[in-house]
Design a protein that fits this description.
Bound molecules: flavin-adenine dinucleotide
Shape: globular
Number of strands: 19
Helix content: 25-40%
Radius of gyration: 20 Å
Largest sheet: 7 strands, mixed
Length: 400
């Protein structure tokens, strides 16, 4: 049983492997989710794997990141390597619905408007879940449970999940605007994000073209318990959009503004039990350096389905697999992201980085989760070395 893209991806893979799958969600689809809607090459690769290549190709395609800030504009193409050379952006109402449909077409049974409210235990194993469906309680028995219920993860909490907010996390908001640049082949990020008083914030603003005369506009900042963000996201998003109005030919009011927190870098403990596992945001699988989580979500969905198919207990195997795949990169990424929250650091290093195309290309690969296990070049090796060193000095490594 699984709960959306991570849950749907897991459901699709598990159903294709021959398992009986219930794909339950509290929402009725198509449903919205606060998101930049950006699909990095890694997310494109995962959609391709699911068999959605043609569907993805029917949407806008971008060739890289246009980074703005500190007096510079750099156009950074998605790097060569083992991942596709293209990205995209698709509104989540559409993306999540399509991946869910793929799961149902693969044989999963869908349950909408079904909120998981209680866990039925058999010793330390989950025997079933009680759902609230239009005020009625219904229980569903399960042999294995995959939980993908997002940042707050109510079900995860019932299972003992803990999100550690002393490690860096994100707060972000998005909205939609009309734009004459909706077919721009670049996604744009403004790395010099200024608040209403002109102060430099530890985050970035984005404009992601969606085609059809629309762009996704948003702002996000980093925070820790010690250094909370202390920003009002909606006024900041309006301020940011007003500043970009002429450059991106924006018009109209901010549509469907929505904000949310982002758990990052595996800063979650209790991600598995003998027959249950958390994936996506519920397991803190969001990149601390850019806030992307769709790709990790779909990857974790596929990986957990494979692990379940192999058989055996998940309680050690799942955190170990997450650690093997993401532990080192998350450790160094969240350490760097934590540094960005220190006042005066960004104003000092931002302008230096933005002066060098080479450094920003490196940053794009490191920050964008664009290094694969197969990459052997110097940038990949440095990133892995830094990750290993970082884990060694972590007071609480990712997923522990
Ligand atoms: C403002 C913002 C911008 C972002 N931009 C990007 C971006 O451009 N690119 C990117 O890759 N990532 C982005 N992210 C991160 C991305 O949105 C998440 O990482 C991703 O949605 C995680 O998917 P998920 O399925 O784990 O959680 P969600 O997408 O939140 O899905 C959770 C699902 O669980 C259901 N649910 C919750 N509780 C229950 C319950 N008790 N019972 C049943 N169902 C339940 C919900 O209805 C929902 O459908 C952004 C996040 C934010 C906040």
């Amino acid at each position: 049983m699984e709960l959306a893209p991570p849950g749907s991806a897991a459901a699709a893979w598990a159903a294709r492997m021959g398992h009986d799958v219930v794909l339950a969600d509290a929402a009725v689809f198509p449903r919205d989710k606060s998101c930049g809607d950006g699909l990095t090459p890694r997310a494109i690769a995962e959609l391709d794997r699911l068999g959605l290549k043609e569907w993805t190709n029917d949407h806008v395609v971008n060739k890289g990141l246009r980074a703005h800030g500190f007096g510079q504009v750099l156009e950074l193409e998605w790097p060569d390597g083992n991942l596709p050379k293209t990205g995209s952006a698709v509104p989540r109402t559409e993306l999540d619905d399509r991946i869910r449909a793929e799961a149902l077409e693969s044989g999963a049974q869908g349950a909408e408007g079904a909120r998981a409210v209680e866990v039925l235990w058999d010793g330390d194993k989950v025997e079933g879940i009680v759902f609230d469906h239009e005020g009625e309680r219904k229980s569903v028995r399960c042999q294995q449970l995959i939980v993908a219920d997002g940042v707050r993860s109510q079900l995860g909490r019932l299972l003992g999940r803990e999100w550690h907010r002393d490690t860096v996390y994100g707060v972000a908001a998005r909205s939609y605007l009309l734009s004459e640049c909706s077919e721009d082949p670049w996604i744009s990020s403004h790395l010099e994000l200024r608040g209403l008083e002109g102060e430099l914030l530890s985050g970035y603003g984005w404009i992601f073209p969606l085609g059809g005369g629309q762009v996704n506009v948003g702002v996000g900042t980093l925070a820790t318990l010690k250094r909370p963000a202390n920003v009002q996201l909606r006024p900041l998003m309006q301020f940011y959009a007003d500043q970009r109005k002429d450059d991106f030919k924006l018009s109209g009011d901010l549509q469907a503004p929505k904000s949310a927190m982002l758990p990052m870098g595996g800063a979650v403990s209790g991600v598995a039990g003998p027959n249950w596992a958390l994936i996506g945001d519920s397991a803190g699988c969001v990149n601390p350096l850019n806030g992307e989580g769709i790709d990790y979500g779909m990857e974790t969905g596929r990986m957990v389905a494979e692990l379940i198919h192999e058989g055996g207990s998940l309680d050690h195997a799942w955190p170990q697999l997450l650690t093997d795949h993401y532990g080192e990169a998350f450790s160094i990424a969240r350490r760097l992201a934590g540094l960005v929250t220190i006042p005066r650091l960004l104003p000092a290093v931002g302008p230096i980085g933005m002066r060098s195309n080479w450094m920003m290309m490196l940053a794009l690969r490191w920050m964008g989760n664009l290094i694969t296990d197969e990459d052997r070049d110097a940038a990949a090796q440095v990133w892995r070395w830094a990750g290993k060193a970082s884990v060694k000095v972590d007071a609480r490594p990712p997923f522990s």
